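# nightly structure sweep
# worker-07 picked up a monomer target from the shared queue
# config: single-sequence mode, recycle default, output format = C-alpha coordinates
# input follows
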Amino acid sequence: MERKENPDAMFGETWLFFGCRHRDRDYLFREELEGFVSSGALSHLKVCFSRDDPEEEEEGEEEEGFTSAAPPRYVQHNLLRNRKHVTDILLKQKGFLYVCGDAKNMAKDMNDALLDAIRAELQVDQLDAMKTVALLREEKRYLQDIWG
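# output follows
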Protein backbone atom coordinates (compact mmCIF):
# COMPACT_ATOMS: atom_id res chain seq x y z
CA MET A 1 0.00 0.00 0.00
CA GLU A 2 1.14 3.52 -0.70
CA ARG A 3 1.51 4.38 3.00
CA LYS A 4 4.25 1.72 3.31
CA GLU A 5 5.94 2.75 0.06
CA ASN A 6 6.03 6.42 1.03
CA PRO A 7 6.30 6.57 4.84
CA ASP A 8 7.20 10.28 4.93
CA ALA A 9 4.03 11.36 3.10
CA MET A 10 1.12 12.72 5.11
CA PHE A 11 -1.88 10.40 5.14
CA GLY A 12 -5.11 10.78 7.01
CA GLU A 13 -7.01 7.99 8.67
CA THR A 14 -7.97 5.00 6.57
CA TRP A 15 -11.11 3.10 7.45
CA LEU A 16 -12.28 -0.12 5.86
CA PHE A 17 -15.88 -1.20 6.33
CA PHE A 18 -16.05 -4.80 5.16
CA GLY A 19 -19.10 -7.01 5.02
CA CYS A 20 -19.82 -10.50 3.81
CA ARG A 21 -22.30 -13.23 4.62
CA HIS A 22 -20.37 -15.65 6.84
CA ARG A 23 -17.25 -15.11 8.97
CA ASP A 24 -15.99 -18.67 8.54
CA ARG A 25 -16.68 -19.03 4.79
CA ASP A 26 -16.44 -15.56 3.27
CA TYR A 27 -13.91 -13.57 5.30
CA LEU A 28 -11.18 -14.68 2.90
CA PHE A 29 -8.48 -12.09 3.59
CA ARG A 30 -8.89 -11.80 7.35
CA GLU A 31 -5.20 -12.19 8.21
CA GLU A 32 -4.14 -9.70 5.55
CA LEU A 33 -6.72 -7.11 6.60
CA GLU A 34 -5.86 -7.47 10.27
CA GLY A 35 -2.19 -7.22 9.29
CA PHE A 36 -2.90 -3.89 7.58
CA VAL A 37 -4.30 -2.63 10.89
CA SER A 38 -1.31 -3.95 12.83
CA SER A 39 1.14 -2.32 10.41
CA GLY A 40 -0.71 0.99 10.43
CA ALA A 41 -1.70 0.84 6.76
CA LEU A 42 -5.33 0.83 7.97
CA SER A 43 -6.42 2.94 10.91
CA HIS A 44 -9.69 1.06 11.44
CA LEU A 45 -11.22 -2.19 10.22
CA LYS A 46 -14.98 -2.58 10.76
CA VAL A 47 -16.36 -5.96 9.73
CA CYS A 48 -19.85 -7.43 9.75
CA PHE A 49 -21.47 -10.69 8.70
CA SER A 50 -25.04 -10.62 7.49
CA ARG A 51 -25.92 -14.30 7.73
CA ASP A 52 -24.14 -15.37 10.92
CA ASP A 53 -26.14 -15.93 14.07
CA PRO A 54 -25.68 -12.80 16.21
CA GLU A 55 -25.58 -14.98 19.33
CA GLU A 56 -22.39 -16.63 18.04
CA GLU A 57 -20.63 -13.43 16.98
CA GLU A 58 -18.31 -11.30 19.04
CA GLU A 59 -19.97 -8.49 20.97
CA GLY A 60 -20.59 -5.27 19.09
CA GLU A 61 -18.72 -2.12 19.92
CA GLU A 62 -20.35 0.74 21.78
CA GLU A 63 -19.98 3.73 19.50
CA GLU A 64 -21.76 7.02 18.92
CA GLY A 65 -24.65 6.42 21.27
CA PHE A 66 -25.27 2.82 20.21
CA THR A 67 -25.26 0.48 23.18
CA SER A 68 -26.55 -2.68 21.53
CA ALA A 69 -24.46 -5.74 22.31
CA ALA A 70 -25.36 -7.15 18.90
CA PRO A 71 -22.80 -6.40 16.20
CA PRO A 72 -24.02 -4.67 13.04
CA ARG A 73 -25.07 -7.09 10.29
CA TYR A 74 -24.58 -4.81 7.30
CA VAL A 75 -21.90 -2.35 6.22
CA GLN A 76 -24.34 0.57 6.17
CA HIS A 77 -25.13 -0.08 9.85
CA ASN A 78 -21.41 0.01 10.64
CA LEU A 79 -21.12 3.30 8.75
CA LEU A 80 -23.99 4.74 10.79
CA ARG A 81 -22.40 3.57 14.04
CA ASN A 82 -19.33 5.55 13.05
CA ARG A 83 -21.14 8.45 11.37
CA LYS A 84 -19.38 11.16 13.37
CA HIS A 85 -15.95 9.95 12.23
CA VAL A 86 -17.09 9.28 8.66
CA THR A 87 -18.66 12.70 8.17
CA ASP A 88 -15.68 14.41 9.82
CA ILE A 89 -13.24 12.66 7.49
CA LEU A 90 -15.38 13.24 4.40
CA LEU A 91 -16.49 16.79 4.99
CA LYS A 92 -13.92 18.47 7.24
CA GLN A 93 -10.79 16.58 6.23
CA LYS A 94 -11.80 16.32 2.54
CA GLY A 95 -11.57 12.52 2.61
CA PHE A 96 -12.82 9.96 0.12
CA LEU A 97 -15.46 7.22 0.26
CA TYR A 98 -15.23 4.23 -2.06
CA VAL A 99 -18.15 1.79 -2.13
CA CYS A 100 -17.79 -1.60 -3.80
CA GLY A 101 -20.51 -4.24 -4.01
CA ASP A 102 -23.85 -5.10 -5.51
CA ALA A 103 -25.95 -2.38 -7.10
CA LYS A 104 -29.30 -3.91 -6.25
CA ASN A 105 -29.31 -3.40 -2.48
CA MET A 106 -25.96 -2.59 -0.94
CA ALA A 107 -25.11 0.51 -3.00
CA LYS A 108 -28.54 2.06 -2.42
CA ASP A 109 -28.43 1.22 1.30
CA MET A 110 -24.95 2.74 1.63
CA ASN A 111 -26.10 5.90 -0.15
CA ASP A 112 -29.12 6.13 2.17
CA ALA A 113 -26.88 5.60 5.21
CA LEU A 114 -24.53 8.34 4.05
CA LEU A 115 -27.48 10.70 3.61
CA ASP A 116 -28.71 9.81 7.12
CA ALA A 117 -25.23 10.36 8.57
CA ILE A 118 -24.90 13.77 6.91
CA ARG A 119 -28.40 14.81 8.00
CA ALA A 120 -27.72 13.80 11.59
CA GLU A 121 -24.22 15.21 11.94
CA LEU A 122 -24.77 18.47 10.04
CA GLN A 123 -28.36 18.82 11.27
CA VAL A 124 -29.65 19.56 7.78
CA ASP A 125 -32.72 18.43 5.87
CA GLN A 126 -32.83 15.69 3.23
CA LEU A 127 -32.41 18.12 0.33
CA ASP A 128 -29.26 19.67 1.79
CA ALA A 129 -27.87 16.20 2.54
CA MET A 130 -28.55 15.21 -1.08
CA LYS A 131 -26.75 18.34 -2.30
CA THR A 132 -23.76 17.45 -0.11
CA VAL A 133 -23.63 13.91 -1.52
CA ALA A 134 -23.97 15.29 -5.07
CA LEU A 135 -21.00 17.59 -4.39
CA LEU A 136 -18.95 14.66 -3.06
CA ARG A 137 -19.74 12.75 -6.27
CA GLU A 138 -18.89 15.78 -8.44
CA GLU A 139 -15.55 16.17 -6.64
CA LYS A 140 -14.93 12.42 -7.15
CA ARG A 141 -14.71 11.92 -3.38
CA TYR A 142 -17.68 9.51 -3.28
CA LEU A 143 -17.07 6.78 -5.83
CA GLN A 144 -18.79 3.48 -6.44
CA ASP A 145 -17.62 0.26 -8.10
CA ILE A 146 -20.89 -1.64 -8.19
CA TRP A 147 -22.38 -4.47 -10.19
CA GLY A 148 -25.85 -5.86 -10.83
